[in-house]
Recover the amino acids of this structure.
């Protein structure tokens, strides 16, 4: 485009040119109105009024002509401003970075100079932490710490005792430094020993360099429950005419499935079913023997079952059984007692170890009747004596004395039907005979069928005994058949005939002994603390 034309276009878009163009439009409009007869002043006013706001029209016309140019200039100015600001920021940052680097180089130079001037040092290796066992003891729940309890650290390779430490107020303990090895922790049962068990021993803990042994956590309370008996009907007790009395007792034998070890468990022995195990002593092992943690047998009369339950071993500490299962064996013993009989006079009691031969009494043919009797009584009572000495009002012993007035002892010693056998052998005359023990009761229970009863901590397991309906009728039928003395002797075990009578017992045919089933009728919480009476003191030597 020629310069003259471009200059003409630019001059036509100036503000003055736009004002001249607007004035020309208004003047032309006024002249048209004057030609129509309107006065000059009114024509000018009407023309300006019809044209509108000249300022706004002027601004619009200028923007139409110059808007693109103005926007382009604004964008260029903004971009240039941003570039200038970025350059300024970059320059400042570069300056600061150079200043920091200069300071760091100065510090590094100073440190290198100091290291160069300092003599070299040899690093001291860190001492390894000593190996040890840790743990926590409680009494019944984690919220009840067992404080001030002596803890025995045992080497389970040979059962030797390494040291004894004491738990703090929180029940925590530390063994102190140990060598590489297999260990266990033993601590006393709280609040006291139960059923010959004095200590708990934890499972083995392996302590070796580079291995962090797990802390030993052990509850020292005895996890015990009880057993109770209920019958389907009362035990037989029947007087027949003026001849004899049919009497009966329920014999129960209970044995825990958990054993109480004489010495600590060691790695050469089989693993027990449960941890912790119960110990009689923490001395190093002299043997590997173990016995049931709880074991008893009890002769129960109808009076025991209905009125004097608290006087039986079931309600004493001897009747506490640890958690797990118990084997229950039961039999009903029947007897025929002549209404008129006399007993040879015997002393009221027999002291432990008395007599020429001490504990067993005298069994020589030349021994007196009382000396023979003393030995037989001890044989019959031995199972109760060595397991639960002096346990309960109905125990066979009181301290070191066997009471002959005890009803349980009478039932154990006379033998089933032994008095009636003497009656037959004397042709119906009223017999005069001593209590001659047969000791069969304990053996009968050993042969009886075994039932399993669950034992839960703090609960009583109720056992139901089904008493057969034909006990009395079968015994009366046999007695009234007038058996000969020899045949009667085979039915009883008084003469130790043995094989025939044993087979009849197993088949349920013997009228004097019947094995019965003990089934679990239910469980219920104990109404009182499990441990009622403490056991006698025990010397762990």
């Amino acid at each position: 485009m020629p310069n003259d034309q471009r200059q003409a276009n630019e001059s036509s878009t100036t503000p003055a040119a736009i004002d001249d163009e607007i004035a020309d439009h208004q003047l032309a409009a006024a002249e048209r109105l004057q030609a129509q007869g309107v006065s000059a002043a009114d024509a000018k006013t009407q023309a300006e009024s019809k044209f509108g706001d000249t300022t706004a029209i002027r601004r619009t016309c200028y923007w139409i002509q110059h808007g693109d140019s103005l926007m382009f200039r604004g964008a260029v100015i903004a971009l240039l401003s941003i570039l200038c600001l970025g350059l300024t920021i970059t320059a400042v940052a570069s300056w600061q970075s150079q200043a920091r680097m200069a300071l760091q180089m100065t510090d590094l130079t100073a440190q290198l100079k100091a290291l160069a001037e300092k003599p070299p040092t040899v690093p001291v290796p860190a001492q390894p932490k000593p190996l040890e066992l840790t743990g926590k003891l409680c009494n019944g729940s984690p919220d009840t710490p067992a404080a001030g309890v002596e803890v025995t650290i045992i080497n389970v390779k040979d059962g030797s005792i390494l040291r004894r430490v004491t738990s703090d107020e929180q029940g925590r303990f530390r063994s102190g430094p140990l060598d590489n090895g297999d260990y266990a922790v033993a601590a006393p049962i709280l609040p006291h020993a139960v059923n010959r068990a004095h200590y708990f021993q934890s499972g083995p803990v392996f302590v070796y360099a580079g291995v962090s042994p797990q802390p030993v956590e052990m509850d020292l309370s005895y996890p015990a429950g009880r057993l109770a008996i209920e019958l389907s009907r009362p035990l037989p007790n029947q007087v027949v005419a003026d001849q004899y009395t049919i009497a009966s007792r329920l014999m129960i034998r209970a044995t825990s499935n958990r054993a109480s070890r004489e010495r600590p468990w060691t790695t050469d022995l089989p693993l027990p079913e449960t941890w912790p195990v119960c110990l009689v002593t923490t001395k190093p092992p002299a043997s590997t023997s173990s016995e049931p943690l709880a074991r008893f047998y009890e002769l129960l009369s109808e009076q025991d079952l209905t009125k004097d339950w608290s006087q039986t071993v079931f309600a004493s500490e001897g009747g506490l059984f640890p958690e797990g299962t118990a084997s229950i064996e039961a039999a009903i013993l029947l007897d025929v007692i002549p209404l008129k009989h006399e007993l040879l006079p015997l002393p009221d009691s027999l002291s432990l170890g008395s007599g020429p031969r001490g504990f067993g009494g005298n069994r020589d043919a030349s021994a007196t009747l009382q000396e023979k009797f003393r030995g037989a009584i001890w044989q019959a009572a031995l199972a109760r004596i060595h397991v639960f000495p002096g346990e309960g009002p109905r125990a066979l012993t009181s301290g070191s004395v066997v009471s002959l007035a005890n009803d349980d002892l009478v039932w154990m010693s006379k033998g089933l039907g032994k008095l009636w056998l003497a009656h037959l052998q004397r042709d119906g005359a009223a017999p005069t005979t001593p209590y001659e023990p047969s000791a069969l009761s304990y053996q009968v229970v050993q042969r009886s069928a075994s039932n399993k009863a669950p034992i839960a901590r703090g609960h009583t397991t109720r056992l139901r005994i089904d008493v057969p309906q034909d006990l009395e009728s079968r015994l009366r039928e046999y007695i009234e058949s007038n058996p000969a003395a020899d045949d009667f002797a085979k039915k009883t075990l008084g003469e130790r005939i043995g094989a025939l009578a044993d087979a009849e017992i197993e088949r349920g045919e013997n009228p004097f002994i019947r094995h019965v089933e003990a089934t679990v009728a239910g469980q219920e919480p104990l109404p009182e603390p499990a441990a009622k009476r403490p056991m006698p003191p025990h010397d762990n030597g």
User: Anything to note?
Assistant: The mean pLDDT is 75. The longest strand covers residues 324-338. The CA atoms of residues 151 and 165 lie 5 Å apart.
